Structure formats: structure tokens, C-alpha cells
Amino acid sequence: MTLDPRLFADGPARDARFTVREVWSEMTNLAEDDPRAMAEFLHRQMNEEVNGLEIAARNLADFPDADWELRLAIARQCADEARHVDMFRRCFEARGGRVGEHPILNFQYRITTRIESLLGRLAVQNRSFEAAGIDAIQDGIAQAAEPDLRELLDAQLADEIQHVRYANHWTAVLAERGGARAAFELARAVGQANRALAIVAGGAMVRYPVDAELRREAGFSDGEIEAVKEFPVRL
Q1: How far apart are CA 158 and CA 213, in angstroms?
Q2: Looking at residue 210, what is its pLDDT?
Q3: Please, which residues have CB within 8 angstroms of residue 4's CB and are 6 or more apart in sequence?
Q4: What counts of helices (H) and strands (E) characterise the chain?
Q5: How far is C-alpha 7 from the geometric centre of its chain's CA atoms?
Q6: By C-alpha distance, which of 100, 119, 118, 112 is closest to 194?
Q7: pLDDT for residue 204 is more than 80
Q8: Are the beta carbons of 1 and 22 closer than 8 angstroms?
């Protein structure tokens, strides 16, 4: 399937082990009680963490004149995401998995790097995708039976909260600094990402309870938390 280049950047490179799909319906979507479901989930999440690393690295490369403190936070995110990749791979291979045996999606990378401004990218990747991930991870911790998986998700959650927190701080700074133009960039980025995500997801959005305490810790206001309760979804 060919995706609209107005909404999607080119995908990141993957070696011959991987089969890359473009939309959710093309993936190996297993029932929750399928014995292969956990391994497929870990494989998919491993690649999503690679996407997170690639997006953060692209932000460093594409916006070399950003504030030093912001660039430092993005660089720390790169390190966090690389650690998450290793964590998911260990859990996946401990369950007999072989890297590349399941298809992958690179929708977060393709959607986020199509956005032209750093403000827009932080709003979409960190304040949207990763913020929704906070709710999903917290739900996963509650459901996790295996100690290694619970430990992985606990560590991931702490990092993701920080990724959202720094983005909340810097989107406010950049929006105030940029005035009306920044507000336009922000609205355009979010609208563009919403249209792209709808194409990828089809009807496959999953709803998780919004964890108000964690989102507050990540820097969201009470008003923002109430607003997101209307759309608590994650692909």
C-alpha cells in the first residue's frame, strides 16, 4: 500500500530480516488468548522503541539550532529509547522469538518526521503518541503476570513520563516564543498527524483508561487531562 506523501515521510531503513507493513490491517493481529500474542506484541513494541530512537535522533539532526537544554533532553531520550529496544529484545528472545519473524509498522516515524517544525514533532510524538503510551504501559503493568515483563514496563514508564514532561515544558516555551505562527504550526501538525493516524489505524484504535496522576506528573494541566479523556486511544 502506498501512503500519501503529504502526510507520511519515507520510512526508516530496515534490513532484510524485516517485513514492513504500512497499515494495521496488514499486520499479524492475533487474538489475546493466542499463545503467540505476547511474543508478537514484544516484537512490535521493540520496533516502536527503535522508531522512538530514530525520531529523537532526527530531531537532533534536523534542528541543530534548537536550545541546548532541549537538545540535551532529546539526546537523553535517544539513550532511553536505545535501552528500551534492548529490554524488549531480551524479553522477546527469552520467549523463543526471532527478530524479524513478525511484520512491523513504522507509522510513528513516518508521521512525525513528515512534520516540518520541532514544535509540531514534540506535540505529536511526545505529547500525543508517548503520552498515550503512559496510559497503555500503566494498564500493561496491571495485567503483567511475568516478573521480567513487569520490570521492563516499570522502567519504561519512568522514562516515558520524563519524555512527555520535557516536551510539555518546551512546547509551551516554543509556542510562547513563536506567537501566532507557532500556534498555526502546532494546529497544522496535530491535524496532519490525526489524518495520517486514521489511515494507518482504520478501526483498530484501542482505548485505555487515562491515568490522571501520571499525566499530571508528566506536566499536563487538569484541563488537558479532562480533554484527553474524550479521546484516550492508542494504536
Answers
A1: 13
A2: 87
A3: 196, 199
A4: 8, 4
A5: 17
A6: 112
A7: no
A8: yes
Dist. CA 226–CA 220, nearest whole Å:
10
User: What is the structure's pLDDT at 79?
Assistant: 98
pLDDT digits over 39-85, tens only? 999 999 999 999 999 999 999 999 999 999 999 999 999 999 999 99
Which residue, 113, 115, 125, 119, is CA-closest to 176? 119
Q: pLDDT class for 231, splitting at 50, 70, 90?
A: low
3-state SS string over 107-145? HHHHHHCCCCCHHHHHHHHHHHHHHHHHHHHHHHHHHCC
CA-CA-CA-CA torsion sign (84, 90, 91, 92): positive
The CA distance from 185 to 182, in Å, is 5
Delineate the domains of the chain, giving CATH numbers in brackets. Answer: 20-234 (1.20.1260.10)
Rg of the chain, C-alpha, whole Å: 17
Q: What is the pLDDT of residue 70?
A: 98
* 3-class secondary structure, 105: strand
Q: Is the pTM of this model over 0.85?
A: yes
Instruction: Tell me how many degrees the CA angle 104-106-112 measures, rounded to the nearest 5.
Output: 165
Reported as type and span, the H/E element at residue 80 is helix 68-94
